[in-house]
Amino acid sequence: MRYPDVVVVGSGVIGAACAEALSAAGAGVTVLDRGPLGAGTSAAGEGNVLVSDKGPGPELDLALASLRRWPALLDELGVDVEWDAKGGLVVATGDEAAKALLGFAADQRPEGVDARVVTPDEAHEREPHLTPAVVAAVHYPQDAQLQPVLVTKALLAAVRRRGGTLRPGVRATGLRRRDDRVVAVRTAGGDVPCGIVVNACGPWSGEVSAAFGAPITVLPRRGVILVTAALPPTVRHKVYDADYVGAVASGDADLQISTVVESTAGGTVLIGSSRQRVGFDDSIRVEVLRALARRAVGLFPVLADVPVVRAYGGFRPYAPDHLPVVGADPRCAGLWHATGHEGAGIGLAAATGRLLTELVTGAEPHLDPTPFRVDRPGVLG
Predict the structure, then answer these.
(1) What are the residue boundaries of the FAD dependent oxidoreductase domain, all occurrences included (predicted)?
(2) Is 311 left (phi over 0), alpha (psi -120 to 50) or beta?
(3) Is the dihedral of CA 289, 295, 297, 300 positive or negative?
């Protein structure tokens, strides 16, 4: 029996994308997950592939690279994952918010973001049910959406087709080392030999890295989404309030609500978004649901009488500087990390898997990996 070259711990979209890219490069890959495959953070997201919410910098570079990679990757996978290049519409309902939005869009354009200023009337042509309070809007045609569970399953299926092994229900408890190099992942059911291990455990990456003897600072950040009953076509784009960008970039532990509304292929409307650092407390709080609903109706008054059929929440992997952690751990040869994408994991996954594989194999990286290195302030410790 040939032991795997790589063990990827975590089967969410980031772990799945890393496993897929590594297997495509010829590595033997085993994916471990303590629970069902793809059932954590990736199953609790909206499937956003966004550039609209990212200012100039390394995360935007990663997002643009991923946006370029996703269509070709999906063609290679040959599976319908409900890819929808619907575009995004960001709106402001106050003068200060409008000024900030237009300035943000102006900063994005030189970096390759298609940010088109539209008038309030044009915004209403795109979204007829939008509140008349809109005073400024920017259309982002590059924004897209896909179904996160479907794409995660498709990536993992590609790994299996190439001879990889998927092992749900297997908890990684530590590493076995020889001469300070990884030689196996320890599990309750025995060691899994390997030359490389990738920590892709999302919000649990901090816990897992500590168990591996090389702790990194990645924390859970709770988010909740409302789902309406299926409607006739009502919301055409991903539409969000201009203050969403500030909520994403904030490190505040207190509850933050910023309105995000979009439809799905099945006709339901997804309403977000909340951000709150409450550890791994997964309780659904009524005050959060009320705040989400109230803000959504403010943006789309037509939703006032639409029933909400369910609410669900998840934990986003949060790094203190709001950048993903992608690269080798300098303290342990053979240990790599791919985590910290917070709520952007779906959108950033394609480029993250490619970048990690380039670094592992020694290929020329398609973008600068330095900003995502493990040994940066605030992450290592």
Answers:
(1) 5-359
(2) beta
(3) negative
Are 194 and 165 spatial neighbours (Cβ–Cβ below 8 Å)? no
Q: Amino acid letter at 213?
A: G
**What ranges do the domains of the chain cover?**
6-75+148-218+321-372, 88-141+219-318
Output DSSP code: residue 167: E
Tell me the CB-side half-sphere exposure of residue 308, using CA atoms within 13 A: 18
Please tell me the distance from the alpha carbon of residue 43 to that of residue 284, in angstroms, as a whole number.
Answer: 16
Which amino acid, 51?
V
Give CA separation, 278 vs 38, 106, 219, in Å: 22, 35, 10
174 CA to centre of own chain:
26
The domain over range 88-141+219-318 is classified in CATH as 3.40.640.10: no
Q: Are 183 and 165 in contact (CB under 8 A)?
A: no
Q: What CATH superfamily classification does 6-75+148-218+321-372 receive?
A: FAD/NAD(P)-binding domain (3.50.50.60)
Query: Is the CB of residue 233 less than 8 Å from the CB of residue 248?
Result: no
Is the Cβ–Cβ distance between 93 and 120 less than 8 Å?
no
Q: For residue 5, what are the contacts with CB-CB under 8 A and spacing of at least 6?
A: 22, 27, 28, 29, 194, 195, 196
Packed helices 148-161 and 345-361: angle between N→C axes, nearest 10 degrees? 30
